[in-house]
Amino acid sequence: MNNPIFARRDGVWLNEPEQWSAQGDSLQIVTDSATDFWRETHYGFVRDSGHFLGFPTTEAFTAELRVQGDFRELYDQAGLMVRIDARRWVKAGIEFSDGRAMLGSVLTDGRSDWATAHYGHDASDFRLRATVANGVLRLQASADGKLWPLMRLASFPKANSYLVGPMACTPERAGLKVIFSAFRLTPPLGKDLHDLG
Hints:
This protein is mainly beta. The protein is built from no helices and 17 strands.
């Protein structure tokens, strides 16, 4: 796709932030206060107030996205979301937790889980890839857009279409500035699980 995806008119905001702008292949947002996505597990509450700009896909796809942000307060987060509805979604990216920016993902099918891992690269500039096909979700993260190690492999609810796009939340504050760019939606890559390209 040669046309900048953020210029397309089929993107739908969920909880549109007060401050955002799109130019070329870049989307810049500043998070509102007390924004989050979470369902029930451990904390018991439901939050569906995070910022998400979703673009429709077919039943199988690969999405890639570059994310730049200054994550420094508890639960500051930004990345990629794949969503069917309020009860079925995944978010993946960097989230500030335990005093550092961590690689994290939350998969929700009625209730949320949360998986985190140390990220050994520059957390202020990273890339994500999500591939959904045949009821399986594959998440990959990259520091340079060339090497794509596996982040997570999981079952994911089947649907005729999904919404996918950039996501950002700040449960404890407002004011996280995030720049999203290099967003691509393609047919699923179909690469071997251990193909890091």
